[in-house]
Write a structure and sequence with these properties.
Elements: H1 3-12, H2 14-34, E1 39-49, H3 55-76, H4 79-89, H5 95-101, E2 102-106, E3 112-119, H6 122-144, E4 154-160, H7 173-198, H8 205-212, E5 216-221, H9 234-249, E6 259-264, H10 271-284, E7 289-293, H11 301-305, H12 313-317, H13 323-326, E8 328-332, E9 335-338, H14 347-351, H15 354-366, E10 369-373, H16 382-389, E11 392-398, H17 404-416, E12 421-429, E13 431-432, E14 435-436, H18 443-461
Parallel strand pairs: 5-12, 6-10, 6-11, 7-9, 7-10, 11-12
Antiparallel strand pairs: 1-3, 1-4, 2-3, 8-9, 13-14
Helix pairs in contact: 1-7, 2-7, 4-5, 4-6, 9-10, 9-18
């Protein structure tokens, strides 16, 4: 995965990162309110051994003392020392409780040992530390003295008594807030990245292009008002639709595609709406356009445009009606419509017949553009058959919904039947400031060319094709 993909994931999940960072700061503040201040007092001990008569012996004794420091650190937190300290202080605590409050830390490469005690009461912290230090010196003396008597081989002497601490130890409020915010930020980044990596849907045009290995011809923004109207309002979607129209016109060099399917891998990706809107914007440029309802299993096109379904593609292919009888003229301004017709028992057989190929060739001669709305490619074979008979297909990918695997398989299905993929069209793009999020990059490059090209096409198409 490229770095820009990680950046896209983090941009999409910025609210997760921000929310968890704020929660971390709030958590740090809450912890500061409920936590109890702790005070720590420390005493320092000096470990000695019997002196030698020479420099070498003195050096060896010093090394011996350094080794003893580590042993005495363990003794400082032993049950025996803790129990003696508790008995001395007569505090309402057990030896185990005291051990949990005591730490002993040897100072590296020295014969010094720091013994520290912690408690919520500063006076108790100092008393605990001094009691443990005092009892430690006694236990050391007992252990280092031979049973035959004499002087101990080594000993520990208190150098600095523990003073009553004046301030609590640990993290202050600012530190807690910083630590909480940092923890929330890290967790937010991990959650956002995990969410993005688990999300297999297409999120932008560049990803759709990478997955399909086809050019993205355009992107259509999400429009909450679109389902309420039979055709898109050009004030909202005119720019991206005209950009798409221009890109289609310049496909194939001097021989642009004329019979085009509008298809997708799965349902709910905007095929019917895109077919209607694209037909309308092509007619706007002066082209003679026919919109065909190629989905004979769920004939939605006729209902969307408010025309009857008693005659249509299915009855023409079955020989019940002539083509002229089934076409509805000027359903939209300059757009004729051939609805799907009644649902037949064998849609795939009808579309795969010679009659279907002959019909499309006939339409090619009568119309400048023939746009065919098809069923989903991965549900039935109808869309693949129609695309193979046509000049090519536009494969739709719905932003945030179409999975990468769905788009990849849709392109593969068309390639398997010899169908040409003219390009990919992303639908339901998020908008920024009333424009498609990517209209500035794609639309801006084509809009100026579209204006000049459409004026030329309008002049040359006034003859009717």
């Amino acid at each position: 995965m490229e770095i820009r993909e990680y950046g896209r994931i983090l941009r999409a999940g910025w609210w997760i990162v921000a929310s968890l960072t704020v929660l971390g700061i709030v958590g740090g503040f809450a912890y500061s309110l409920v936590s109890t201040d702790r005070y720590q007092a420390c005493a320092r001990l000096f470990v000695t051994t019997e002196g030698g008569s020479s420099v070498g012996e003195a050096y060896q004794n010093n090394l011996f003392s350094q080794e003893r420091v580590s042993s005495y650190a363990g003794l400082a937190t032993s049950i025996q020392v803790a129990q003696r300290a508790v008995d001395q202080l007569q505090q309402p605590m057990s030896a185990e409780d005291l051990r949990a409050r005591i730490t002993a830390t040897p100072i590296e490469k020295t014969v010094l040992l720091d013994v520290c005690g912690t408690d919520s009461d500063p006076d108790v912290a100092g008393a605990l530390t001094n009691a443990v230090a005092g009892q430690l010196t006694q236990v050391v003396q007992e252990l280092e003295t031979s049973q035959r008597g004499g002087s101990p081989a080594a000993g520990a002497t208190i150098v600095d008594q523990a003073d009553v601490p004046t301030g609590p130890v640990g993290t202050g409020l600012v530190t807690l807030l910083v630590l909480g915010g940092a923890a929330g930020l890290i967790l937010g980044l991990l959650v956002a990245l995990g969410r993005g990596l688990m999300d297999r849907s297409i999120r932008d045009r560049s990803r759709a292009e990478d997955i399909s290995d086809r050019t993205v011809l355009g992107g259509l923004p999400a429009d909450a008002e679109r389902p309420r109207h039979p055709v898109a309002t050009f004030a909202r979607m005119g720019e991206p639709l005209r950009a798409l129209r221009t890109n289609i016109r310049f496909l194939g060099g001097g021989s642009p595609p004329r019979v085009i399917t509008v298809t997708s891998g799965g349902a709910g990706e905007g095929r019917t709406s895109t077919a209607i809107d694209l037909a309308a914007v092509m007619a706007e440029a002066g082209h003679k356009v026919l919109l065909v309802g190629g989905d004979m299993r769920s004939p939605d096109l006729g209902e969307r445009l408010g025309i009857g379904q008693t005659r249509g593609l299915s009855t023409v292919l079955s020989g019940e009606h002539r083509l002229e009888e089934a076409i509805h003229r000027d359903v939209l301004d300059g757009v004729a419509v051939l609805p799907a017709g009644p649902i037949p028992p064998n849609p795939s057989e009808l579309l795969g017949s010679d009659r279907a190929q002959i019909l499309l060739e006939s339409l090619r001669g009568d119309y400048r553009y023939v746009l065919i709305d098809t069923p989903p490619l991965l549900d039935v074979t109808d869309g693949a058959i129609l695309t193979a008979l046509a000049d090519g297909g536009l494969v739709l990918a719905r932003i945030g919904r179409t999975s990468r695997e769905t788009l990849r398989r849709a392109v593969k299905v068309l390639g398997g039947v010899g169908g040409s993929v003219l390009g990919v069209v992303t639908t339901f793009e998020t908008t920024r400031g009333g424009r498609s999020a990517r209209a500035r990059t794609a639309g801006a490059d084509t809009t100026s060319g579209a204006a000049a090209a459409d004026r030329e096409v309008s002049a040359s198409s006034s003859s009717g094709r």
